[in-house]
Amino acid sequence: MDDSEPARLRVAYGTSQRPKPIPRGCFLIEKESELRVAGLRVPTRFDLKNLVVLPYTLSAFMNAPGELGMLKPSPLMGVLPASRYNDLKRAADEAKLTRR
After folding, report:
1. How many domains does the chain have?
2. DSSP H or E run through 44
3. Does residue 21 have a cis peptide bond before it, meaning omega lies within 30 degrees of 0?
4. How many Å apart are CA 98 and CA 66, to the nearest integer?
5. What is the mean pLDDT of the segment spanning 58-72?
6. Which residue has better confidence, 77 or 67?
7. How far apart are CA 46 and CA 66, in angstroms?
8. What DSSP element (H or E) covers 93?
9. Within a domain: residue 34?
10. Residue 1 domain-assigned (yes or no)
11. What is the pLDDT of residue 1?
């Protein structure tokens, strides 16, 4: 990769519509404190069987809200709460098994 290419991120599909039940290869963020850390407003299920690779640019993440609904200089909305790391690993392992 040369310096003119932006970094790329692998992004999991997330949905807040009918987040339960939680199928294999998915995990849910639903506790209020975890939603805040993750930059989410409502419980959201992430599907690690449904991934896309996106450039880490503002245009790729234009709809990512910042504080008070304004865009920040970075498209970062929040971070995965440490309390969900094990759920992420489990879902990733399940997603690998279902892709075979």
Report:
1. 1
2. strand 44-55
3. yes
4. 35
5. 60
6. 77
7. 20
8. helix 85-99
9. yes
10. no
11. 52
**Cβ-defined contacts of 78-85 (< 8 Å, 24+):** 78/36, 78/37, 78/38, 78/39, 78/40, 79/37, 79/38, 79/39, 80/29, 80/37, 80/38, 81/29, 81/33, 81/34, 81/37, 81/38, 83/31, 83/34, 84/27, 84/29, 84/34
Give residue-wise pLDDT tens across range 47-62.
Answer: 999 999 988 877 777 6
**Residue 65, in any domain of the structure:** yes
Residue 91 forms part of a structural domain: yes
- Phi first, then psi, for residue 52 (nearest 5°) are -135, 155
In terms of C-beta density within 10 A (0-12 exposed, 13-18 middle, 19 or more buried), how is residue 91 classed?
Answer: buried
15-32 pLDDT, tens digit per residue, is 999 999 999 999 999 999
Asked if pLDDT for residue 97 goes beyond 50, the answer is yes
Q: For residue 44, what is the domain's CATH number?
A: 2.30.30
| Domain with 14 in it | 8-99
Per-residue tokens: 72: 């920040």
Number of H helices, E strands in the chain: 2, 3
